[in-house]
Structure formats: structure tokens, C-alpha cells
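hey team, just a heads up i'm posting the complex here instead of the shared drive bc the drive is being weird again. everything in one block, sequence lines first with there labels, then the predicted structure for the whole assembly after. its two chains so it's a bit long, scroll down
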Amino acid sequence: MTPVRQSCPHCHSRLSIDLAGIQLKNPVMVASGTFGYGQEFAHLMDLNRLGAIITKGISLEPMEGNPPPRIVETPGGMINSIGLQNVGLHAFIRDKVPFLSQFNTPIITSIFGGATKEFQELAKRLDDVPEIAGLEVNISCPNVAKGGVLFGVDPEMAHLVVRKIKQSTLKPVIAKLTPNVTDISSIARAVEEAGADAISLINTLRAMAIDSQSRRPLLSTITGGLSGPAIKPVALRFVWEVVNAVSIPVIGIGGIMTPRDALEFIIAGARAVQVGTANFVNPRACIEIIDGIEAYLVEKGFAHISEVVGSLRIS
Amino acid sequence: MNPSRTADNKGGGPSLVKGIILENANVAPSYYKMKVHTLIPYGDIHPGQFVMVKVSEGFSPLLRRPFSIHSLWKQSDKNGTDIEILYKIVGEGTNLMARWREGRELDILGPLGRGFSLSAVGGNPVLVGGGIGVAGLFALGQKLRDLGLTISVLIGGKTKEHVLCIENFHALGAEVHAATEDGSLGFHGMVTDMLKFFFRNRPNPSAIFACGPLEMMRVIADITETQSIPCQVSLESRMACGLGACLGCVIPTRGNIFRKPLGATRHENGTSFQRVCKEGPVFNAQEVNWERI
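-- predicted structure starts here --
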């Protein structure tokens, strides 16, 4: 017999959803690496409003990240090459989780490893942290030499790492995919078969910028990952393809700046969205997007956000 | 003066507010001074802190632009804070800003970052500015004047058109020296060369505060390290959020080799990279890893 789920105060809202077993009061989350560990934004917005917080990617040991310059602005976007600088698992649990757990917002931890064993160890140790609602597995970072994206571009590797992680934790596992592949559907199906509870995409698109005056690359690592409004149409196409390839929930990411952008992903079939670069430009972007989605539902006469998911009209 | 208050150079949390442009004046070829009234008051502002200004209505250009708070020309009151930004046209964003007129509404995030640490400053501090770097030093000059200190200011620029704020610093009662690369005003040469001359007559400044091109600050860091003079530099970096989240603006520091003069939390991130927007923009010169920058 299924136990009756304790009702949460937001469950009756138009926006509340169940995402792979995680109860969200709305489908708008902050994307990993764009929101730090929450502290940086707490002065400027109410973190309780967010659907979920995906924390900056965590590895077993602290990582130094790439040398500067790490970012460059491009038309309608920015290219970054941060290189997963992070405090490491131990400091994350000790210093960052207590702050985040004050809020009535699920914490989803982005994890990153150079080898399957590291991913497993991260999953195992985070499984012991009750404040963490779920894991997002980053098999898609374009900016680190070791591992990372290697898992995300090969269906067998993607399958292997997700399966190993699922064996190491009971928490919901979201696989975050890279768009830098030829056939996204095969990767999506591989992680679904491996037991992923949801898929989020897209991570950044590999990109490059050059200063013609000095003839030098504008990033220390020469190439980086493009984000921002410039990638939204590409991201939307990827989400559409994956929605049609799998039956697990898909989380749309890529250049979402406004409520309208978020709705496009939801109409394409995303159950939820993540807002990334917009947080840098407007720290209150997520709040405006949440309010805008709600206003849209009211205006269009939808009783619940689920009515909009995958409602693309093709005739 | 409460010493713990002066030691706190970080201020409270930033605010995201609307502001109204009171004035946006062309003060020299390609340099503008903008007075802004924020519609809710900023918390305490410390010299060296900065603001992030949204330069487009939409998302092109995408990112906010960082500017030092140039001057606190009026006390904050319950209706808001009046701040001044001195900027140079360097690209698309500042080009747009130069066209802004009085009365325009502004989306401005601040005050951000860690400003100059004034807790141990006494005697005769020296301010060294290069080009637009002088922008952030004027607020510091105002504060040092308020603390009753006599300051000397060395300002460098390519030509006399690039030497800013001489009169403003004079008005603070400062001793001001200009240097130009073409000799069109004051000392003929780099401001760092002028600094070496300056030290011959005034060998023991209590502290150096510098802001300008990277090469200028690198030389000043070297001189002050050799002579054991406390030196703080205000650094620039490409920045996306200004809040410490994107980790895009980091600079290499010397990590744990040196003691942590501004508090034990500075290396909490387990890396020798420090965020210009959060741990900075002001750093102790000897904390910066100039070889790696």
C-alpha cells in the first residue's frame, strides 16, 4: 500500500509539481553554477520562492578551477570556462548545506567526478545528508580536461555512470546532458535505461572568442561554454528531441531570461526549467519568471501547469 | 570613530534598486561623470566598493557593467543614496551610457565587494591612480580627509586629457602630482616613475592605495614590497554577476603562503583564486600573485 503523502502547503497551487519524487512548489529552479550556494543571493530575493536550488557542482576534493580570464561576453550571451572551481564535498556539507537548509526549498546537489568511482563516492556520501533532496549528475561540463564530458558524449559511458550512481543512492538522480553530441536521443535513452529519474539539458555549447587586435583567445582555455539568450533556440530543439525520446521528466535549460522563454520549454514538453545566466543579469529573474508563468496560467485559463507541459500544437 | 566600524570595509548586503540619473556630464574627451539618486537607500558604502549597472533595456548587451563608486557627494537619507560614477567610454556598454540623459531610470545593483581597509591607516597615505583608475580613489580621498589624514595623490595618464580629478583632490586639501606619458602635464613619464622620485623626498608613506592599469599596479606592488610599505590595490576583471556567484572574475593570489590580512575567511574556497567582486576588488598588493596574473 502506498503511504499517503503528507500534504505540503503549496501542493494545491497551480504551479506545484512532483519531479521524480521531489515536491516543488513551482517548476523554476536555479541552474548549477549560476547561483553559488545560495548565500550570494539571499540579500536580494526570497530563496523560499524558488522551485529548487541546484548548487554549484561539487567534486570529492576542492577544485581550483581554470586560470583567468574565465568569461567573455558575446552577442546575446557569454562564454565561460570556470573549470568547476568548488569547495569540495566535505566543506559543502559542513559549510553550505546548513545555510541552504534554512529555506523551504529543495536542495539538489550537482555532482562531478573524473571517474565513475568518484561519482559513486559522492552519491554515497550525499545519500547520508537528509537535507539534500536529489542529485544532478554533471556529465556535461565542457571545461575540464579530465572526465566530465567524456561520460556525456558516449551512450555506454553515460549509462555506466548513471547506473553506478543509482546503485549508490536512494535519492532521485537527474542526468544533466551536454548538447555537444551528434545524437542526443541515444544519450537520453541510455541514461533513462540506466535508471535516471529525470534528465536536464542543455549544458553550455562549446564556443570560442578571439580578440582580432591581439590575435589572442579571450579565454585562458581557448574554448569554453556558451550560455545566455543566444542558445535558447538551440536548447529548445534539444529539449523537444529528448522529450520525444524518453518518458522520464525533462528539465529544460538554456537561455531562459523571461517567463515567455520558460513557457516555450514547458510547451515543448519540459516538466520544469532551470534558469542560469539570467541570475547574473537580474538576481530576481527567477521570481519574475515564476510570477509570469502563474499570470500566464490565469490569463489562459489553465488550472495547473501540467496542462501546459507538452501542449505544443502541431497540425 | 568606532574602530570596528572602520575595519569593516565590506558593508552590508547589496541592494537591487532603481535609480534616477541626476546628471551625466562629459568631463573630458571620452570621460563622463554620472550622478545617480537611488530610490531606496544603500547601506554603508565603503570607498573601493562598486556597483553593477544594467546598460541595456533588454539583453543586448547582456551583462551588467561594473563601476567604482567615485564619490559620496551627499549623505544617504531615508529617500535614497546619491552616488557618483566616473567612467570612460571603452565599448558598447559605456557608449550606450554616454547617451543617457538626466531623469532616466537606472537599474543599479550595489554596493558590492570589499573596499579599502582603513583600520590601520594613519600618517600620510599616498593614492596612486592611472587613467580611469582614479575613479575609485576619490571616494577614498574623501574618507581619508574625514578621518583627518593628509593625503598625497599621484595621477598618471597618457596625455593631460587623461589626467582626471586634479581639482577635486585639491579641494580635499590633498597634495596632487600629475604625470603624463607625453609630458603634456606635470612629470614626463609613467606615474610609477614619478612615485620613485616621490619616495626620495618622502621615504616613509604610511600606506599606498593604487588603482590603474595592471602593469602600473604590478610595478607599485613590487616597489612597495621591496620597501615594506603597506599597499592596497583595486583590481578590475571581466565580471558577469558582481555577487560572487559566477566565479568568472577571479585573480590568482599567493594562497596560504602569506598570512591572511583581511580575515581568515579569505581562503574558504580552498583555492588560490579569489573573486574580484567579493574578496576584492581591493586586495593587499602582496596577496596577489602577480607572476600568474
